[in-house]
C-alpha cells in the first residue's frame, strides 16, 4: 500500500490544500516523503456533513454488521503488512518488537469490541412492563436502551501510534458504540495514520457502510482540531495527549452552544509506594523492576512511574542503588519527536537544577540527537510538599524519589497529589495492615491500584480502568482502555408505551437479539 | 416537630448568621415564621469539612447499613406527619392531594434506592482472573468496582418541594451511591426543607452514621450555593431549576482546579407531535387530555408540554377547540412563588404580543395575586423557524401550537429543536410508518419518547430516563429520576493483583456479598 498524503473524506481521497506536514524520522530528524496536505475548513465541513449523514444509518445497522466491520478493520490493518510496521518504527523511533506488539494489541482491541457488540450488554436494556391495574394510577410501559451519542472526534496519541491513534482504543470504542468517527491524525506519525486510515476506509467499503462512518484529516495547524471539537455535529471527543492540549479541548467543548463530553487522557505521575517490609525484603529486586518500567519505551507512557514515596533509610538506599545500577546500564532511547525530546531535556534539566532536588542516577548517554537519557532524582517530603512543580509529569524516563520520615508522611503526601491513572503499592504480607489505610486515599484519586507491579503494560480487558480523576483524565467517570470504554459514547433513552412495531429490536418483548435484560429491575440472562 | 430556622451542620443545629430568609405563603404572598438564618462561609466550611470526614467511612459501610439508612429517612419523613404536608402546601401553593402524593413518591424513591443498594448491581463488579501461563506475557488479575465520587451538593427544586428537594431524587441517589450530601435549601420552601432536613439528620443519628453524611444549609444570597460548587471537597452537583441557574453552576464547576460533574436538569419544552390519523380519529380527546397535562400543577413541570407540532387543517382545529374548551374551564392556580408567577406573566404577555403569534385560549382568570392563568398560542412553521425565542421554555401552563403544512415540515422543525427531556407522539396504527421516520431525530435530542400520552407524570422506575441532551440537562448521559440515577455519582476503579485480604468485599473471589458479576466479560448471576 502506498502512502499518498491525501485526506480521507468518506470514500474519497482528497488532497488537503491548507498547508502541509511531513513525517519525521524520529531517529535522524529527517523529513520523510510524502507531504501530507492539511485539511481546509471546507474539507472539515465535508467530513462533518458525511459523518452526520452516516450517523442515523450506521447506528441502527444490525449488531452483527457492526461487529464484522470492526473485525474487517482489524484484518485490513494486518493486511497492510510490513509497510505499516516499518513506517511506524521510522516515525515513532520505537523498536520493531514494540510496534509489532502494538499492532497485535490494536487488532485484539478491535476484535474485543466486536465481541462486545455481538453480546449487546452495552445496550443496557431495561424493561418495566405496564401495570394497567395498579392503584391509584396505572403504570405505563417503560423500556430503556442506550443509544450512541453521534459523530465522535478522535485525536490520536503520539505515544501509541497504532493502539491509541487512528484505529486505536477511542476509535474502536466509538465505532462499537455506533458512532461515526472523524480522526485527526497526529502530526508525529502521519504516514502510519494514512496507512491505518486507508484500512478503515476500505473496511467501510468492504462492509457496505455509509461512507461518512469514517474520515481522516491532517491538520497543518490547530484550526482543524479546534473546528472539529466546535462543530455542532460532533457529539463527543476522544483525546490522548498533554494536559495543555486536553484542557484546551475541554474549554472549547464547554463553550459550545451544546457542550459535549471530552474524554481526554492527559497527565499522571503514577505514584509508587514502597512499604517497609517489602522494601526491606525485596528492595533491590523492586528497584531493578522499577528501572525497567521507568525506561520502557523511553518512558513515554501515560502510566510511567514518575514518583516514588518511601520511608528514608538504608532499605531505601538499597532500592536506590539497585535502581541506579540498572539505569546506568540503560541505553538512551530515541524519543517520539524532536519536540518531545526537547521538552524532556528541558524538564529534566530544570529538575536537576532545582535547589531541593538531588540527581541520583542517569541512564547511558544519548547517542543520537533525539535520544532521551533516563533520570532519577530525590527530594525530601517537606520539599515535595512545598513545591507543586515537583508534582508535574515529566513525559519520559524520569522519576522522583521522595524520602519520607514515616508512613504517615507518605499518606499525607498521597493526599496532596492530583488525580492519577495508577498507583502502585509494593507490599509484603506484613505490610497489608498499613496498606489498607492507604486504600481510601488511592481510590479517591486513581483509576487503577496495583500491587507489586508497575502501571506500564495496560491490559486490554473487561476489568481495566485506564482513567482517573482530573487531571489524569478530563472525566474520571470513564476508562479509555478496555471494554468499558464503550460506555463513554452512549446515553440512555426511554420509550414509554411504544407499540411493539415501533420499538427497536433491542427492546421488543420477544427479545429477538437475545440480550441480557433488566426486567422490573432484576437482571435476567438470555441464556 | 417544630421549625427552628436553624442550619443543620452534621449533628448540630446552628443559627445561620449571614442574613435571613423567610418562607412565603404562596397563595397570599405573606411571609411565614420563623426566619431562617443564612449560612456564613465559615458554616459552609464546617459542613464541607464534616462531609469530607464522613465520606471515607460512609462509603465503606455495609450495603445493608446504607439501605436501612435510606429506609429510615423515608420513615422519619412519614413520621413528621401532617405538619410537613401543611407547611409544604402553604409554601408551594400546590394542592394537598398533590403534596401527599409527592410525599409518597419521595418515600417510595428512598425505598427503591434501598433495594438497589441491597442488590448491589450498581457496584458493576468485573473480574478478569489472572492467567499466569498466558504467552507471550502472563495476564494480571484485574477486578473492577464502582466507587462513590465523594460529597455531593444538592440544590432542591422549587417545583418538587419533596420529591426533588432536600431528600428527593438527587439526595436519595447520591446517598445510595455512598456519597455524603450537603443540601442547599430552596428559598421557596425553607420550612419544608427544615422539616425534611431534620428527618434526614435524625436518620443519620438513628443509624449511627458519621454526622457529616448530611448537612442542610440556607443561603440568603448566592455565596453559599456558589461556594458549595467551588469547594474542593465537593465532587458532584445535583440541581433542578432554571437554565440560567444551571448553566451558571456548570461554568463554576468547569472553572474549578478540579472540574466536577454537574447534573443540572434545566429547560425543556417537550414537543407533542400530532400525527394525521390520530388527529383525525381522536383530535378532540387528545385535546382534552393535553389541556389536562398542560394545566396540571399550574404547568410547573419540567415535562410540561410547551409545544405542539401538527399539520394545519380542520382536524387540528378540532383539537384546538377541544383544548380551548377545556382550558376555558381550567381554574387559575397558585404558582410556586411570586417570582415564578411574575416571570410566567411576563413570558405569556411577551408571547401574546409577538407579531407572529395568535392567542387561541386562556384559562379562567386569576383569583389571587400569584395565580397563573393557562395560555394557548399558535404560530406558523415559518415563524417558529425564524424566531428562536419561540423555542424557549415558559415555566407554567402555556403552550404553543405550530401549524405546519405537512409532516416533512414537522420533522424539519423537530430537527431545529434543542435537547429535550421528552417528546410525545400521538399516533394511530396508520401513523406508525410516518412515526418511524421521526424516531432517529427524537432519539438524538430527547431522553424519553412517549406514545399517546404526555410527559407529565414521571414514573420512578428502573427504565425511566428523566434526562436529555443540553439544555434539557447539563449532561445528557444521565437520568435524575429512576434507579439509573445512582450511576451519576459513581466512577470505576480497577484493582490489579491485589491480595484477597486487601480487596473490598465486593471483589473477593468467594463473592461474600452475593453480587451479580462480570467474569472475563460474561455476566453471571449470583442466584
TrEMBL record, chains A, B:
Domain Aldehyde dehydrogenase, first and last residues per copy: 19-468
Reactions performed catalytically: 2,5-dioxopentanoate + NADP(+) + H2O = 2-oxoglutarate + NADPH + 2 H(+); 2,5-dioxopentanoate + NAD(+) + H2O = 2-oxoglutarate + NADH + 2 H(+)
Broad class of enzyme this protein falls into: oxidoreductase
Signal peptide: none
Keyword Cytoplasm among UniProt keywords: no
GO molecular function: 2,5-dioxovalerate dehydrogenase (NADP+) activity
EC numbers on record: 1.2.1.26
Keyword terms: Oxidoreductase
InterPro entries per UniProt: Ald_DH/histidinol_DH, Ald_DH_C, Ald_DH_N, Aldehyde_DH_dom, Aldehyde_DH_Superfamily, ALDH_KGSADH
Gene3D superfamilies cross-referenced by the UniProt entry: Aldehyde Dehydrogenase, Chain A, domain 1, Aldehyde Dehydrogenase, Chain A, domain 2
Family: Belongs to the aldehyde dehydrogenase family.
PANTHER family linked: ALDEHYDE DEHYDROGENASE-RELATED, SUCCINATE-SEMIALDEHYDE DEHYDROGENASE, MITOCHONDRIAL
Protein name as catalogued: 2,5-dioxovalerate dehydrogenase
Organism of origin: Caballeronia mineralivorans PML1(12)
